[in-house]
Automatic annotation (TrEMBL):
It comes from Plantibacter elymi (nom. nud.). A motif (Histidine triad motif) lies at residues 117-121. InterPro entries: Histidine_triad_HIT (IPR001310), HIT-like (IPR011146), HIT-like_sf (IPR036265). It holds the Pfam family DcpS_C. This is Histidine triad (HIT) family protein. PROSITE patterns: HIT_2.
Length: 135
């Protein structure tokens, strides 16, 4: 970047820098850099247990692509991938919770999202009404 760049070009370059952040923990799991025990895998989705469970059963369903930061972007950009995530979540719930579960997508930092690679939390196991995770 030079000091002679127009302001709109500087702003564009800053957005490009923001978009080239380091890979998320989920991208690193997808690539195999961080090992995990996969509970389910399709061509486009993986699932594994959360390392800091907030319920008796707490699983994560993560698309292999890091293209979408949250469920709103995913729904707009690739609804079939969102449907596949829900299918994987339902299959896991049948296996781990008898088919009864909560499916949670945090969208935005103030809503509790800490990893900005869309992912679904599958929560189950004796959850009480009025609690988020049961912990």
């Amino acid at each position: 970047m030079t000091i002679h760049q127009p302001a709109h070009e500087v702003a564009t370059n800053l957005r490009l820098v923001d978009m080239s952040e380091a890979p998320s923990v989920f991208s690193r799991i997808v690539s195999g850099e961080i090992p995990t025990t996969l509970l389910a895998e399709t061509d486009r989705v993986i699932a594994f247990a959360d390392i800091a469970p907030q319920a008796p059963v707490h699983l994560l369903v993560v698309p292999k692509t890091a293209e979408y930061r949250d469920v709103v972007e995913l729904a707009a950009g690739d609804p079939s991938l969102l449907a596949e995530m829900v299918e994987v979540a339902s299959s896991l719930a049948k296996e781990h919770t008898g088919g009864e579960f909560r499916l949670v997508f945090n969208t935005g930092e103030s809503a509790g999202q800490t990893v900005f690679h869309v992912h679904a939390h599958v929560l189950g196991g004796s959850l009480q009404e009025g609690t988020l995770g049961g912990a």
